[in-house]
Amino acid sequence: MAVGPLRVDAANMLLRQTDCNVILSDDGLQTLCLEQNIEIAVIDGERRFGNGYCLPAGPLREPIERLQSVDFIIVNGEKSEEREFFHEACWRKGS
Hints:
Blueprint: H1 7-17, E1 40-44, E2 72-76, E3 84-87
Parallel strand pairs: 1-2, 2-3
C-alpha cells in the first residue's frame, strides 16, 4: 500500500520497490495521469445517484453518463441493475 498527495508518484514507488503488477486507486477515474487498463465505478446502492448533480451541488464526482464508458460497475448494497455487479460487505466477529 502507498499513500501520497501525488498518486502517480505513489504508484511509481510501488512499481519500483515491490513486485506489484496491479494498482487499485481510490478516485482513479479523476486521476487522468495514471494509465488505466480497467475502470471500475462503485455506486452506493442505497443513495444511488442522489440528486444527480456533481460536487459541490450533489454527491457525484463524475456525470452519470461516465458510467457508459467504464468496464465494471459495482453496487455496494441494495440490488443491482443491468450491467452492474452486486456487492455486499459482510463483517464477521473476529475478522
